[in-house]
Amino acid sequence: MKNIRKQFPVLGHCIYANTAASGLLYDALLEWRQEHDLDFLIGGSRMKMNAMIHHIPEVRETVGRFFSCKKENVALVPNFSIGLNLLLEGLDKSHKVLLLESDYPSVNWPFEERGFKVSYVKIDVHLEAHILEKVKSEAITVLALSVVQWVNGIQIDIDFLSRLKKEYPDLLIIADGTQFCGMTDFNFESAPFDVLGASAYKWLLAGYGNGFMLMKDSVQHRIALQSTGFNAANGNADGKEHIRFAKRLEPGHLDTLNFGSLKFSLDFLNDFGMSTIEKQLRELSTKAKEEFEALNLLEDAVVSRTVHSTIFNIKGDENVFHKLTESGVVCSQRGNGIRLSFHFYNTVQDIQEIVKILKTGE
Question: For residue 55, how many other CB atoms are within 10 A of its CB?
C-alpha cells in the first residue's frame, strides 16, 4: 500500500478523508492526460477524430468489462445527473415512484420536478423494511435510490433488493452508484438494478466530466428515450432511425480527454485489483466504525446496521471541523455533522490520527 500512496502527492501533506467529495488525481493519470493533450496539440483534428472513432468505443468496452455489463447497454455521459435527466424524459408519468428522504438531490429532484407520483421512506436502521412495506402497500412501480448515502454512508442491502426484485419483477430499480462504484468488485448483470449510473470523479478516480449509465436489456422496452443527436447515430446522417437505446444518452460528441481518463483509471484500479481494494475498504470501515462508535460520534442508524461503507458522518460543530482541518485533515461538513470518507489509499493509521485529534481537548 505504501507504493500506491506514492501515486497521490496530496497524501504527502495531509490526511485525505474526503473522497466522497472528490477522488484524487494521481501521477500516472496526470502523465497520460499530458500525453493526450500533447498529441492533440501536434495532431489537431486528425488526432481527435481518430480518438473519437477508435478510443471512445474502447472506453465503453472497458466500462462494460469492469462492471460486467454488456457494452451495448453502456452509455457514456458527462455525469450521473445528466444521464438520469435524459432517461426520465422517456419514463411514463403514470409511474408511482419511491424515493428515500434526504437522498442525494440529483436522485430525487428530477423525479419531483417532472410531476411523478412520489412517496418517501426514512433512511434509518429499518430502511429495507420501510421500502418493502411501501412497495407492498402503495403499488410502487419505480424505486430510485443511491446505493450509498452521500451524507452518512449508509449502504442499501443489495441482497434485500435482489429478494425484492424476485418478488416484484416488474419493479423498475434505478440507482446512483457514484458513492459506490469503485468500492467493491461489482457485477451489474447479476445485480437487481435495472439502471445504475455514476459520476466517476469520486471512488473511480477518473476526474471530472465523465460517467456512465449501465442498463439491462429490458429497460429499452420500458423507457422511450427522446434524446438524440448526430453522435448518437455515430455521425451517420442517414442513421436517425437506427439509433440503439443506450446511444440516445450520447447525443453529442464525447470528450476524449475525460473519457480516456475514465478508461485509464478503470485499468489502473483493475491492475491494482478490485478484490484487494475491497478488502482494504472493509478493514478501514470496520476500524473507523469501532473508533467513532467508541467516542459516541455516530448516529444510531449507522451503529445498528451490519454493513456500512467507508463514509462516516460524525457528530461535531464548527469548532471540531476547524480543529480537524487545522490539523491537516481534509473532510467536509455535511448535514449536522462532519463527513469523513476513506479510500484504498488511506490507512488505519490515518483513522487513528483522526481519533487522536478528536480526543484532544476533551
Answer: 15
